[in-house]
Design a protein that fits this description.
Chains A, B: Residues 32-210 form the FAD-binding PCMH-type domain. 2 copies of one chain form a homodimer. By secondary structure, the first copy, chain A, is α+β, with helices and mostly antiparallel strands. Helix content of chain A is 33%, strand content 20%. Chain A has helices spanning 2-6, 8-11, 45-58, 109-118, 135-140, 148-151, 154-157, 187-190, 224-238, 250-260, 285-295, 307-318, 320-323, 342-356, 391-404, 423-426, 429-442, and strands at residues 17-18, 38-40, 62-65, 81-84, 91-95, 100-104, 121-122, 158-164, 170-172, 199-206, 208-209, 213-221, 242-249, 270-278, 301-303, 334-336, 361-367, 372-378. Chain A is globular.
């Protein structure tokens, strides 16, 4: 379609049109390679509107892209326009009265955290790729991460959106309204829509009081049920102060402690890393946590006595992914089940997998406070991307147990290309039909990120 | 349509079919009278499905009704079936590991609060009609109330829904998943849809740690800007502990203190009633608040020294509505603007109203922490429902200023019948078109609560 593509030169600045060699075409996991006909990097929302109007008229596919850190292939352009939002990166407003910040889609998450920090506030979304992922992508995928237990997922942090619909219409709701019920809430349709309904160009996000004190403990527990019981006790007592409650298996800890050449804080089947924070500078949090653990008979534990000790404990959690690389390429699962079902899921799923693949290695860790697990499986003697030949077989087993335990196949990474054929298993046909109706109304020519999220029709 | 209506007797129990005299046909404000052809009160979700299947086939209008406490006429049946959900009132599960409760739509809000309390948890939604309003209605209208500042509106408290679509299809997502991103989030379409998309039959809701200590203060302030500055300071320091921050005008206080024959706690243009709570029993909250107010130079204030003093302060806030009845029938507004815009709105709106109606009396109070105001206006010498002849003129002026200050015409009461002609002013035509597409897909015969929420097409 050279004629259609040439038209962009008539209404965009030369610097808004990139060459293919200017962008990273491989995705984060080097599993997919994008093949766009054109890469556009608009400098303004007006340019996004012009691009969408033209693409709508000419039926040119458009794949919005942020920091290219997605793990499910949602931002991999297969022909058409790769719409890179990186240049829409202004912090538009910080509003202290309303505890809100208005930012453009291309802002890097860490820059938003820093802008909040400069205003003596917290923007709580925090995840491994925060140095390069972008807010638009975080919203489009409803990102999760480390602070969901206390502050919620991205969905819970969005007060308002500015969006460009597939036909170029701008719909803007960027004023911070804390109560508002005026018809169907379309903001929540766009959050988690992975670029299939339109382009998110800006958002008004919630800010919070900055934590002033932190108390961190590492607790060895006998079982996941024991860990859930500890979670319930901590939440009953400390309420919102609990911001992290991470579960680590004995095997996962052995990997990261070996990798770091560090001592294991406790000897146990399962380990919990929990953290409390408080906005008060003199909250007595550390002593209160020590007393709480003592009173609850939790002797197999360590409290961080300094920021350095805290970082040592967190390093054991954060280096599991790096430490497992020696095991080969993993088949990863981003799953969640109700917290009360985690123990049953872990037990049954391991039994099923071992029966099917006797030598399988399972690295299990995650955010127990959200019921969300990183459940990574390694097949010995199978290297590199060859492992993907076994992906469907492993997924079948894992997801069957996820569904038995009333869970979800996508907790915080989204659906993208790699899970869309599983959507039929978790959503009712009537819901999929409604999703398709919404999509068809907004995007009748199916130009917005085609081939992503929605299962292929039969 | 007698033939269609007779059919209900073939598949419902006799006790599921009421006579018109069994139900309250006037709405809460005695402004509208329902005129259904039939009143059904299903005992089970299966009965709801059977009713919807029949109504879908026969194109019989259905108006779902909960506690009949709505203020906008959303549950007033105009012909067809009035579907009263009161008998679907089981608490299905309390889940401590997941901090969740699963309840049927007809559960009275207070009964849900009490069930949470018995499990040593808090269900935080709290509003004036909690003794008779029902959870299904709270969800359908995205109810707000007193604890939104800390815990959010009903939308923020819903983990999952069970719904019956207009054609009778049951779609159930009642397992507590704290992270889940599997395509477009349809739960949020139903929340706030006011019965126009289907019937909500049950919900899984969030529970929280029960507060153990409370600190309450009444502070006189010079201006709303001064109040906003106090709000910002309190939130920065006490973070989530702040659960109420109520604004009361000098005139509103004079009414309620006169009505109660009680002393006014402070002498000031504006008054703030603020409350902190904490899950820790020995949190030192009272002393911390006293110290905070002293350090911030807030001398025109009173701290409640006992539960009785606390109740005396709250009575002054809660009796404003009762106290204003002597002024006649009011034209009420349920509005919200960004918190930073409240002062400007109040100033400009009063100026405009007084110019138009020189003798107008304005009773202004509300949840400043959410930017949400009860803005009640009284026209002297106009009694009873005669006042509604002036409603559009007053609304024009009030809503023009609401929109100038980037606010919403419906904060926590919904749209119903009385505000649907205003929806065009706050939603983009492309959004209304999408709403109509969603409605048409789910409800092609427009049987679900027709005439509510969506503006009449031109």
């Amino acid at each position: 379609m050279p004629a259609d593509l040439n038209a962009f030169h008539t209404f965009l600045k030369p610097s808004e049109i990139l060459s293919l060699s200017d962008v990273q075409l491989a995705d984060q996991r080097r599993r997919f390679t994008a093949a766009p006909d054109m890469v556009l990097q608009p400098h303004s929302v007006e340019s996004v509107q012009k691009i969408m109007r033209h693409c709508f008229e000419q039926k040119i596919p458009v794949t919005p892209q942020g920091g290219n850190t997605g793990l499910c292939g949602a931002a991999v352009a297969q022909g058409g326009v790769l719409l890179n939002l990186s240049r829409l990166n202004r912090i538009r407003e910080v509003n202290l009265a309303d505890n809100s910040i208005t930012v453009e889609a291309g802002c890097i998450l860490q820059h938003v955290q820093e802008a909040a920090d400069r205003a003596d506030r917290l923007f709580p979304l925090s995840l491994a790729s925060e140095g390069s992922c972008q807010i638009g992508g975080n919203i489009a995928c409803n990102a999760g991460g480390l602070n969901v237990l206390r502050y919620g997922s991205m969905r819970d942090l969005v007060l308002g959106l500015e969006t460009v619909f597939p036909d170029g219409t701008l719909v803007s709701h960027l004023h911070p309204l804390h109560k508002n019920t005026t018809g169907y809430d379309l903001r929540h349709l766009f959050i988690g829509s992975e670029g299939t309904l339109g382009v998110i160009t800006a958002a008004t996000l919630k800010l919070f009081a900055k934590p002033q004190t932190t108390a961190t403990a590492w607790v060895g527990v006998d079982s996941i049920d024991d860990a859930v019981s500890l979670l319930t006790d901590v939440q009953t007592h400390f309420a919102e102060r609990l911001c992290s409650f991470e579960l680590i298996s004995r095997f996962a800890l052995s990997l990261s402690s070996g990798f770091l050449q560090a001592q294991q804080p406790t000897d146990a089947e399962w380990h919990i890393l929990l953290e409390l924070t408080d906005s008060l500078p003199d909250s007595g949090l550390h002593d209160a946590l020590a007393e709480f653990l003592f009173e609850h008979g939790r002797e197999n534990c360590i409290l961080a006595q300094s920021e350095q000790e805290r970082q040592t404990l967190w390093a054991l959690r954060e280096n599991i992914s790096a430490a497992q690389r020696d095991l080969g390429t993993s088949i990863k699962h981003d799953i969640a089940v109700p917290i009360g079902e985690v123990a049953g899921f872990v037990h049954h799923c391991a039994a099923d997998l071992v029966q099917q693949f006797p030598d399988i290695k399972i690295v299990c860790f995650g955010h127990l406070g959200d019921g969300s697990l990183h459940y990574n499986t390694f097949l010995p003697n199978i290297v590199s991307n060859e492992v993907y030949a076994y992906e469907d077989a492993v997924n079948q087993t894992v997801y069957r147990q996820v569904l038995n335990h009333h869970g979800t196949i996508a907790a915080e990474h989204g659906i993208g290309m790699i899970k869309k054929h599983w959507l039929n298993a978790v959503r009712h046909p009537a819901e999929l039909s409604l999703m398709r109706a919404v999509k068809a109304h907004l995007d009748p020519h199916n130009i917005m990120n085609p081939g992503k999220l929605l299962p292929d029709s039969e």
